[in-house]
Amino acid sequence: MNTKPNQTKLRGTIREIRPQPDGWGAEVDIEVEANVSPQADQDFLRPKSGSVMRFFASEPDRLNVGELVQATARLAGGPFGERAILEAWEQVGARDSHPPDRS
What we know:
The protein is an all-beta fold. It has no helices and five strands. Helix content is 0%, strand content 50%.
């Protein structure tokens, strides 16, 4: 069974970008500022303010740690698991001048 069509919209700050071992895409952590999904019944991810969500991005080269973005994502799934996919984003604010210390 595949996941039915869904869409999540959120605003948040990119906190970490980790390239995939196979060289294609990256995992992206976004600290959620607000869930701005227009239809709650189609928002399968339901991000909460203050939480950090992990997404797969197929083209992460345009993303930068510390950027405030408005993002569109979806939950993709099937018989072998599920994954949150970052489909589109746009920068909506300046880079965070003090990203969190990740040591």
